[in-house]
Specification:
By secondary structure, the chain is of the alpha/beta class. It contains 17 helices and 13 strands.
Length: 467
């Protein structure tokens, strides 16, 4: 989104005639880094406005953070918008939203000074409020940019700003799209939508993809397209080299789910489910290569016998060993309950007669808390939480590929000692567990052995749906 001016020549306008510009709907995310400043940094956990407010209700640190965020938002659109009048309108938009949030949080602080009120009960609402600021800003700025270049763009704000209604997500989307003539207007829609269920509460930072998917389903879109600044390719080019990566070209929703599980974020699993049920194909393209069809994700999937992706993720192996669990039910349920309570993501698991191991993605502090909960229930258990990395080899149908054997051989030849490996019966993924400092080397070795210079699957065009 921060490269919006470049997108004028590729994604928004480019060589399209007037009719081709319309009959599309854009759902936009926040500009780069803004949501991290509003909430907390997604990767490092560095506190933003929300985290500072939550941890210091009586202090003013969150106010400084909010002001800094407003300044950053203004500096971003100052580089995107060329006309002074557009910049002034965007500045006024940011001031209104930032000061509105400030007034709201100050009122909440004052209420919290009375013993009858608990700010903690409103923190999820605060998180929802802050989440919508970034998307509203980017949608408004993008609308101004397009209007300045002769496009009849329309700002569609789903954030519920000063809206007394509390509709469902479907109602919010239907109301917002009512009266829009897609043949003559180009809606620029906020990636956050305020609704009764609370998107942050249910999907956290994946809410924009969920809104995108529901909107595609409601409008019976011919195709849903996620525009990224890179292709969905066979591995991270920073690890294996750009010249060695292969564009996937075509794959299945099953593979998309595996990628999400490994933190690749091709699309949120809930969003993929909505599109799959609505029979709307998904395409992932490079926004700066408009002539490239990208990768189609649909029910047909990719070619059988082809490795499509090799990717790695830092994890913790949470191992619970208890000789007394043999033949006894309940151990697994207790562990799952503790991990769920502390919001730890389970990437995969393995078990035998007396040991259950969950491979986890989450903060070590949360994992330790889960460990204490399990020990309260089973004090004689031996629990270890060991840092390592998981490298996954993924494909639509790996049944005809000896991934496990070839992968183990490649790792051994390359000097990487696998700690464990596992393969499911459905043969869409094989997982290799290695030391963390060997993760990137393992990705490179497995990619070289299993992908090599194979060609991507041929792109698939999606026929227009009947009216």
């Amino acid at each position: 989104m921060s490269r919006s001016r470049e997108l004028l020549d590729t994604l928004y306008i480019g060589a399209r005639d007037e009719t081709a510009i319309y009959n599309r709907v854009f759902v936009v995310s926040a500009f780069g880094g803004v949501t991290n400043m509003l909430l907390e940094h997604k990767k490092t956990g560095s506190p933003g406005v929300y985290a500072r407010f939550a941890n210091d209700e009586a202090g003013a640190g969150w106010q400084d953070s909010l002001s800094e965020t407003g300044k950053r938002m203004c500096s971003i659109h100052a580089e995107i918008l060329e006309h002074d009048a557009d910049r002034e309108r965007a500045d006024a938009f940011v001031r209104d939203r930032i000061e509105g949030v400030r007034a709201c949080l100050l009122d909440l602080q004052r209420l919290g000074s009375y013993g009858h009120f608990r700010i903690s009960q409103q923190m999820q609402t605060v998180r929802e409020l802050l989440s919508g600021l970034g998307e509203a800003h980017s949608a408004f700025v993008t609308t101004l940019l397009l209007q300045r270049h002769g496009v009849n763009a329309r700002f569609v704000d789903l954030s519920g700003w000063r809206d007394e209604n509390n509709p469902t997500l479907e109602e919010r989307l239907s109301q917002a799209m009512a009266g829009i003539d897609l043949s003559r207007e180009l809606p620029i829609v906020t990636g956050y939508a305020h609704c009764a269920s609370g998107l942050m509460n249910e999907y956290d930072r994946g809410y924009s993809e969920v809104v995108f998917a529901h909107l595609a389903a409601i409008t019976s879109a011919r195709e849903a397209i996620i525009h990224k600044e890179f292709h969905l390719s066979s591995a991270d080019p920073k690890i294996v080299g750009v010249e060695n990566t292969v564009k996937i070209g075509r794959t299945s929703y099953d593979v998309a789910d595996q990628l999400s599980n490994m933190g690749m974020e091709a699309i949120h699993p809930n969003a993929a489910r909505v599109l799959r049920r609505a029979d709307v194909p998904l395409r992932v393209t490079n926004a700066f290569e408009p002539d490239d069809p990208g990768t189609l994700i649909g029910p047909e999937g990719g070619e059988a016998g082809r490795v499509e992706m090799v990717t790695g993720l830092d994890i913790h192996a949470f191992e619970v060993h208890e000789p007394d669990m043999v033949g006894v039910k309940g151990y697994d349920a207790c562990i799952l309950d503790a991990l769920t309570r502390h919001n730890v993501w389970i990437v995969s698991k393995h078990s035998n007669a007396n040991t259950i191991t969950h491979y986890l993605s989450g903060s070590f502090k949360a994992i330790r808390r889960a460990e204490q909960d399990v020990l309260k229930r089973y004090p004689n258990a031996e629990i270890a939480a060991r840092p390592m990395a998981m490298v996954a080899v993924i494909g639509s149908d790996l049944s005809q590929v000896s991934v496990l054997a070839r992968g183990l051989d490649a790792l051994e030849q390359g000097g990487v000692r696998p700690l464990a490996a596992q393969q499911g019966v459905r043969r869409v993924e094989v997982q290799f567990l290695v030391e963390r400092d060997a993760r990137d080397q393992a990705v490179k070795l497995l990619h070289d052995a299993l992908v090599g210079k194979a060609e991507a699957a041929a792109p698939v065009e999606v026929p227009a749906k009947a009216a």
